[in-house]
Amino acid sequence: MIDLKKLTTETRNPRTMTLDHMTPIEIATLMNKEDRHIIEAVQEVLPEVSTLIEWCTYALKHQGRIIYIGAGTSGRLGLLDAVECPPTFGISPERVVGLIAGGESAFITAVEGAEDSTTLGEDDLKKIALTANDIVIGIAASGRTPYVIYALKYAKKMGCKTAIIACNKNSEMSKEADIAIEPVTGPEVLTGSTRLKAGTAQKMILNMISTGAMIGIGKVYQNLMVDVMQTNAKLVTRAENIVIDATQCSRSQAQSTLEKSKGSVKIAITMILLQCSFEEAQNLLEKSNGHIRNALEGNYSLKEEKHE
Question: Where does the SIS domain lie (predicted)?
């Protein structure tokens, strides 16, 4: 029998014992008050998050992938972060991968028993041809999910750097991780419902990891998404607005330059700011590892240290 009582995420919250007697406004107020603990918990693990951002940036720069792996809510959060990266940052879907116990169908319908498997995690990593260049991030609020633990064991055997995001200190998963990110958000409003505070903390950390890594590989200039994909009318207009905001040009110039840049926001911005051709802008960005700021300042061929 699994002893869940030792897990903070499974204990009862003394402040919510009369939850079933509360009015809607009382429930909303109480949940809002409890959510304040999330910010504090995440703040305490920022040094570990920072290190993981560095490692993920390095992996992406050296043919590696960011691989999230989890079960249930945690697996869904990893998948959600992964699928948002291509449209937001213009990166290939193969570079940030989300794996969930039971397969992609488990995103919608729970697959019973999948999270307890000691083999499925390894199998899923083998299916995507895991290499030592990849970084594997296990996600589980409890920190004890077998699917994730055995996936991490395999990842370590393959020479990958590993990290975990759990919401209990000194979790079982942390033994298999190079970095353990464990924000303790405390007992849930609804006992054991880790889609609440624990899930929110995990989502916040995933936001930091993917956004920070994308900034690190040049997908952002100032605070603008300069590799945004233009897959609908709204995003076409957003691309124009980004060029305008970055260069203070007119909309007509933004539109004409985007046409010349073959739709690349990053190249269009560089063309306007440096008053150069498409080919020149493309060459400068290649020399500056895709960073607009480096292209503008002439910081080319920057050396990078290997993270041990």
Answer: 56-219
